[in-house]
Design a protein that fits this description.
The chain is an all-alpha fold. The protein has helices spanning 3-37, 45-70, 72-92, 98-113, 116-126, 132-161, 166-180, 182-189. The chain is 80% helix and 0% strand.
Length: 203
Amino acid sequence: MERPVIAYCLAYAMHNLELFAFRAWLVAFIVFAGDWQGQPTWLSGTWVAMLATLIGMPASILGNEMAIRFGRQRWLMTVMLLSAVLAGLVGLGAALPFWALLILIFCYSVTVTADSAALTSGLVAVAPASHRGAAMALYSCTGFTGAFLGPLLFGMVLDVLGDDQLSGWWAAFALMGLLLLLGPLALRWANRRFDIRPQPQRV
């Protein structure tokens, strides 16, 4: 399998690892934030999770449009790096006023999904036509592996450091951000040859 295909598969695995961990543990994190501050949050965890998911849907579509405009590799690396930073900040957000935590969560929900469609279209673009089906199969397999591992690793960190401690939640989110950095590293490793942009038509 060609290097760009492997890079996209690894990046997609890390994307799903972060995305599914975020969605699986968001409601519990909102409950923890309310307990940590000693007062109930004025928006329930289920509502926050619903809004974060709804925000993520258009972010994925718009993210692909931005990738076409600015260059797919540049866009993906920028979004993933920003998402990794936000992951560390969100984990500490439980100590902030709830409105500030909401802003962090909604910004994070944008970066978590803004690379999704661009990754899939990128894989299709770089996969050789003769092996595109195999490339998509590998892409799906690695993606769902990441989706399985993300919530699991997040929960393991909470078990070790305590789900009633701010440090435990920060470490769990930070681990997701740290692992996500494997995505930009893989894209960089595969070099700039697969930074596919639409080419102008020659008359």
